[in-house]
Design goal:
- The complex is a heterodimer.
- Chain A is mainly beta.
- Chain A is 0% helix and 56% strand.
- In chain A, strands 2, 4, 5, 6, 9, 10 and 11 form a 7-stranded mixed β-sheet that branches. A 4-stranded antiparallel β-sheet of chain A has the order 1-3-8-7, with no helix packed on it.
- Chain B is 0% helix and 56% strand.
- Chain B is built from no helices and 12 strands.
- In chain B, β7 and β8 form a beta hairpin.
- Chain B is globular and about 45 Å long.
- The chains are: A mainly beta, B mainly beta.
- Chains A and B meet through β4, β5, β9 and β10 of A and β5, β6, β10 and β11 of B.
Chain lengths: 113, 116
Amino acid sequence: DTAVSQTPKYLVTQMGNDKSIKCEQNLGHDTMYWYKQDSKKFLKIMFSYNNKELIINETVPNRFSPKSPDKAHLNLHINSLELGDSAVYFCASSQDIGDPEAFFGQGTRLTVV
Amino acid sequence: AQSVTQPDIHITVSEGASLELRCNYSYGATPYLFWYVQSPGQGLQLLLKYFSGDTLVQGIKGFEAEFKRSQSSFNLRKPSVHWSDAAEYFCAVGVRYGGSQGNLIFGKGTKLSVKP
């Protein structure tokens, strides 16, 4: 029973394409996040949502658009993909907005060619 | 500004030897501190966390960490390393904005290699 699940696990696509990564959590948490791990393994917050409301947007290009249809789902849509978008994207969730303890998904390795 | 420093990029230890991974943080308030492990090709797994109370915290897989406020440190230790412990280890501090928002700030990670 996976707590935080992301699909797909791997995504290879060409520059200029638009792609989406899906995330679902079955923990009953209110808050969900997207983190980006770059080629040097550095992890950084991109977005957080609380009960479908955007809370944190950390200087991410507006080609990245998160969407939360309900509090159990947080999808990441990326337009006009660039080579520099290649990274591992992690979805995570936490009990509520004030709780920093996060449970992470397995990650999606995005490769832009 | 909040930050986390892991001074060691790569550490190699022999199987059975003890391990200590260093972590220093910079945060104005009482920190929430975490250690996560990432095995090759895998997601992030929480090893242990410190919120308050006893400064020595026990985690999964035989790991422990000690919070030292005076040194702004939260070092991870294991008395005897197993080959399966080879992975990337991340220290993180949980931050709050305006009393409500929260997210994690990560260190750059320490890669642990284990030699037989």
